[in-house]
Design a protein that fits this description.
Blueprint: E1 2-8, E2 11-17, E3 20-27, H1 31-41, H2 46-55, H3 59-78, E4 87-105, E5 111-127
Antiparallel strand pairs: 1-2, 3-5, 4-5
């Protein structure tokens, strides 16, 4: 949480810039497959990001869409003045999650290891700042 102190006459006002985040943990998709999708939405407005994710056929896009919608709803819950048009995707991180290791029986009594990878998705959204020159 970032904060700034502002003086208005004799009053001292503390402005708090809250972080609006959401996490998806141990989601059943490889981080290698989800990261390129996350790169497509990073820095875009919320409406455009959801439109991009809805049009993609990938499983990772559906997982990312859920987490981005959750982050946006958290933002609108904590700040009642926000609307969907005022939000943009500030940061998206896709990390390794838990790995599920299985034994895969093969011919002649051998066995291979089958590794199912999971990922953690972290999304931070923020409100747009209008810069007027």
């Amino acid at each position: 949480m970032l904060s700034q102190i502002k003086r208005e006459g004799s009053k001292v006002v503390m402005l708090v810039n809250r972080r609006y985040t959401a996490r998806g943990k141990n989601l059943p998709s490889s981080p290698k497959k989800v990261r390129p999708i996350a790169d497509n939405i990073r820095g875009k407005s919320y409406v455009k990001a959801i439109a991009v994710l809805c049009s993609m056929p990938n499983k990772g896009a559906k997982l990312l869409e859920k987490v981005v919608k959750s982050a946006a709803s958290n933002a609108m819950y904590h700040n009642k003045n926000l609307s969907e048009d005022m939000i943009f995707v500030k940061m998206v991180m896709v990390d390794d999650g838990r790995r599920r290791k299985k034994i895969w029986p093969r011919a002649r009594g051998r066995a291979d290891r089958l590794v199912n990878r999971n990922c953690h998705i972290f999304v931070e959204v923020d409100e747009k700042k209008d810069i007027k020159g």
